[in-house]
Write a structure and sequence with these properties.
The structure is a single chain. By secondary structure, the chain is of the alpha/beta class. The protein has a single domain, classed as TIM Barrel. 30% of the residues lie in helices and 22% in strands. The protein is built from eight helices and eight strands; from the N terminus they run βαβαβαβαββαβαβαα. It has an eight-stranded parallel β-barrel. The longest helix has 15 residues. The protein is globular, with a radius of gyration of 16 Å. The two termini are 14 Å apart. The structure holds D-xylitol-5-phosphate and zinc ion. The site of zinc ion has 6 residues, from strand 2.
Length: 210
């Protein structure tokens, strides 16, 4: 199980990124919000881009924006492994194709109410599906149990289409629900890691090592 750490709820992003860099976390999950697709806004890109000064981990970028194209080009300049756009945005296919032109893996995210079948037309164009287990827009929310069933069904659907696509789950992840998400390849976790003193211990708990 890979872990992607979100710093959305961090009070001191630089300090938390430095501490995360000393753990075996797989990716840094970068939540980016425009105040339109979701109500909240994150740091502007001109500040966000400085995260590379504090981490050598690959970035897992989650764009919660109405118009992803401009932001894809910007995040492509960083040490980025994945860029994920929401299926509920415009020109999804063209965003996915744009991500691949930079040699970056393309992800597609689904809000809680979006049925998994909607990913089918995009399967040939994606490397990752990010299943939201909270309403996007904020860290520290409670995990919605319906995501467990959704992940299981998504796994079956990907098998049916013989699609080699990673499944990631984002929002309210903790040690208990992590055990029920064995079909996922990546778990995104913010508060469960960054609200505690020992980041590595939290990551070990999510991986089921402790
Ligand atoms: C929610 C974000 C998540 C969130 C994860 O909109 O996409 O990445 O910050 O944080 P926790 O684990 O605190 O829910
Ligand atoms: Zn996220």
């Amino acid at each position: 199980m890979k872990i992607s750490a979100s710093f959305l709820s961090s009070y001191n992003i630089a300090a938390d990124l430095i501490r995360l860099n000393d753990t075996d976390v797989d990716y840094i999950h970068v939540d980016f919000m425009d105040g339109k697709f979701v109500k909240n806004k994150t740091l502007p890109f001109r500040q966000m881009k400085h995260i590379y000064e504090y981490t050598s981990k690959r970035l897992d970028v989650h764009l919660m924006v109405e118009k992803p194209k401009k932001w894809i080009a910007k995040f492509a300049t960083l040490n980025t492994e994945f860029i994920t756009v929401h299926i509920e945005t415009e020109d999804v296919l063209s965003s996915l194709e744009q991500i691949h032109t930079y040699g970056i893996k393309a992800g597609l995210s689904l809000k809680l109410e979006t049925p998994i079948e909607e990913v089918v037309p995009y399967l040939p164009y994606i490397d990752l599906i990010l299943v939201m287990s909270v309403e996007p827009g904020m860290g520290g929310q409670a995990f919605q149990e319906e995501a467990i069933k959704k992940v299981k069904e998504l796994k079956k659907l990907l098998k049916k289409y013989k699609a080699m696509i990673e499944i990631s789950v984002d929002g309210g992840i903790n040690q208990d629900n992590a055990k029920k998400l064995k079909d996922a390849d990546i778990l995104v976790s913010g508060n469960y890691i960054t609200s505690q003193e020992d980041f590595q211990k939290q990551i070990d708990c999510l991986r089921g090592r402790l």
